[in-house]
Write a structure and sequence with these properties.
467 residues, alpha/beta, FAD/NAD(P)-binding domain, Enolase-like, domain 1, 3 domains, six-stranded mixed beta sheet, six-stranded antiparallel beta sheet, 8 helices, 30 strands, globular, oxidoreductase activity, acting on NAD(P)H
C-alpha cells in the first residue's frame, strides 16, 4: 500500500467514524456543520450553544428588527442542508479538556471529541458600573432577546434615547431612532463616529451625516454616570464635560468581548483578541505550537494574513465567519496535503441615514486615504486606503458597484494611489492622512483588528498554566 492510499484510507475512516464537536451555535457553527456534511463527514457531530435559540442572523437586529419590520424571533438562519447533529442548546461550555479530548458543559456533562471547532464568537461589552448596569432602560444589542427588548422600548416612544458609542452598531441604532422620529443623543469618546474602523476623514463625513439627520452627536466625551428614579429606571446621564442629560433609554454600544474565558486551563494561545490559529484554522497552543485537533473560526479567531504583513487578524464580519467555517470544516476532515488556507479579504456593509456603506480590505491598516470617484458632498463616492505605497482597503458610500474593482486591486497589492477608474473623478483626488487613532484607546476599536505577531500585543493576555 502506498503512502497516498494509506492517507486516503485514514481520511475516509475518520469521515465515517470520527467525533466532531462544534462549540458555538451561531452562523459559524451552523455553516461549519453544513460544510462538514458536504465534505462527506458522516460521523458523530455535536453542536453546543449557550443560547436556547437555533442559529439566527445578527445583522438585521440593529436595523429591520429595531424598526419593527421583522420580529426578533423571525431571524433564524436558513438551513442549507440537513446536518444530522446532536444539538446541545441553552447550556454553555465551561472548559476544554484537551488531555482527555472532552468539552465540559455547565450542567456537568462531558462531550468527547476527536476534533473540536471553537466558534464561540463575541458578546457585548458590559456597562462599566455594575450597580448602574441593573437599571431598567439600559440595554445592549447582541442577541435576538436583546433586540426584542430594545425594540419594545423604542416602540413605547421614549422622550430621549442615549446611545453610548458611535461605531457601526451605535450609528445604525441612531439612524433607526431618527427614522422612528425619536430624539436621540450619541455620546462618543473619539472625535467622530466610525473613527476606529474608517479613520477621522471618513469620521467627519459620518458626523455631518448624523447631525444633518437630527442626531444630537456629542464627540470627545464619555458617560461618567447614570442615575435612576425610585423605581430603578434610568432617568439621567452625566457626561465627562459636566452635561447632565434627561434620558429614558440608554443603549451601551461599547464594542465586543471575545468569549475565551471557558478556555482557561486549555493551554491555547487565547487572550484579549481571541484564539490564535494558523491560516488553516488550526489553533496554536501557548508556546506557538500548532494543534492537530483544535480548530477556530468566526469572530473569536485571529490568524495571520499574507496581504497584511502576516500580522494576526481578528475579523468580526459575516463573510469571514462563513468562509472560515467552510475552511475549518474542510481541514478538519483532511490531512496535511489536502488542507487549504483561509485568507479572506474582509468585506463589510452598513446601512445608516439613507446611505449604503460598503468596504473591502482592512481600511484601518492604512495610514493614507484618497477619494477616487464620485462626490463627498453628495454622499456618493469611493475612497482607497494605502500604506507604504500600496492599496490595503477601500470604502464606498452609495457606490457599491465598484467594490469588486477595488478588491481586485487589493489582492494584487496594486500601488497607492490606485490607477484612476477612468471617469467620475472627484474634484480632490490628492492623498491625505486617514487619521486613525491609537488602537489601544478604549473606544473606536475596528471590527477588523491587526493584532500583531506578539500574543501579548495590544493588551492580549498571556496566562501560563497554573502549577
Amino acid at each position: 500500500m502506498t503512502t497516498a492510499s494509506l492517507i486516503s484510507d485514514l481520511v475516509e475512516s475518520f469521515k465515517a467514524t470520527g467525533r466532531i464537536v462544534i462549540v458555538g451555535a451561531s452562523l459559524t457553527g451552523l455553516r461549519a456543520a453544513e460544510a462538514l456534511r458536504d465534505e462527506g463527514f458522516t460521523g458523530s457531530l455535536t453542536i453546543i450553544g449557550d443560547e436556547v435559540h437555533e442559529p439566527y442572523d445578527r445583522p438585521p437586529l440593529s436595523k429591520q428588527v429595531l424598526k419593527g419590520w421583522v420580529p426578533a424571533g423571525n431571524t433564524k438562519l436558513p438551513r442549507l442542508r440537513e446536518v444530522d447533529a446532536d444539538w446541545r442548546l441553552g447550556v454553555a461550555a465551561t472548559a476544554l479538556d484537551r488531555a482527555n479530548r472532552e468539552v465540559v458543559l455547565a450542567n456537568g456533562d462531558r462531550v468527547p471529541y476527536d476534533r473540536v471547532l471553537i466558534a464561540t464568537g463575541v458578546r457585548s461589552r458590559a456597562w462599566f458600573n455594575a450597580e448602574e448596569a441593573t437599571l431598567k432602560g439600559l440595554y445592549t444589542l447582541r442577541t435576538c432577546d436583546d433586540a426584542a427588548e430594545l425594540q419594545a422600548a423604542l416602540k413605547a416612544r421614549p422622550k430621549r434615547v442615549l446611545i453610548v458609542g458611535a461605531g457601526f452598531i451605535g450609528s445604525e441604532m441612531a439612524s433607526v431612532c431618527r427614522d422612528l422620529g425619536l430624539d436621540v443623543t450619541v455620546a462618543e469618546r473619539s472625535s467622530a463616529p466610525l473613527v476606529g474602523p474608517l479613520g477621522g476623514v471618513i469620521g467627519d463625513i459620518a458626523a455631518k451625516m448624523q447631525r444633518d439627520a437630527g442626531v444630537d452627536l456629542r464627540t470627545g466625551v464619555a458617560v461618567e454616570a447614570l442615575t435612576g428614579d425610585a423605581d430603578g429606571h434610568v432617568r439621567q446621564a452625566r457626561l465627562s464635560d459636566g452635561t447632565v442629560l434627561d434620558v429614558d433609554v440608554v443603549v451601551a454600544s461599547l464594542g465586543s468581548v471575545r468569549n475565551i474565558e471557558w478556555l482557561d486551563g486549555a493551554d491555547l494561545a487565547a487572550g484579549f483578541w481571541g484564539v490564535a490559529c494558523d491560516a488553516g484554522c488550526r489553533a496554536f497552543d501557548v508556546n506557538g505550537v500548532v494543534t492537530d485537533n483544535v480548530f477556530v473560526a468566526g469572530d473569536v479567531a485571529r490568524a495571520p494574513h499574507v496581504l497584511y504583513e502576516y500580522q494576526f487578524m481578528a475579523i468580526e464580519h459575516v463573510d469571514a465567519a462563513v468562509l472560515g467555517a467552510q475552511t475549518a470544516a474542510h481541514n478538519m476532515v483532511h490531512l496535511e496535503m489536502g488542507r487549504r488556507p483561509h485568507l479572506p479579504l474582509p468585506q463589510f456593509w452598513s446601512g445608516q441615514f439613507g446611505v449604503n456603506i460598503k468596504g473591502v480590505g482592512v481600511c484601518s491598516f492604512g495610514d493614507e486615504i484618497v477619494f477616487t470617484q464620485g462626490s463627498v458632498e453628495d454622499l456618493r463616492f469611493a475612497a482607497a486606503f494605502g500604506k507604504n505605497g500600496r492599496i490595503v482597503g477601500a470604502l464606498t458610500f452609495n457606490h457599491g458597484k465598484w467594490l469588486q474593482y477595488y478588491a481586485d486591486l487589493i489582492e494584487r497589492s496594486a500601488p497607492f494611489p490606485p490607477p484612476p477608474p477612468g471617469y467620475d473623478v472627484p474634484t480632490n483626488s490628492t492623498p491625505m492622512p486617514a487619521r486613525f487613532g491609537d488602537p489601544r484607546a478604549p473606544t473606536g476599536i475596528p471590527d477588523v483588528v491587526l493584532t500583531g505577531h506578539d500574543p501579548t500585543s495590544r493588551g492580549a493576555e498571556y496566562r501560563p498554566k497554573a502549577r
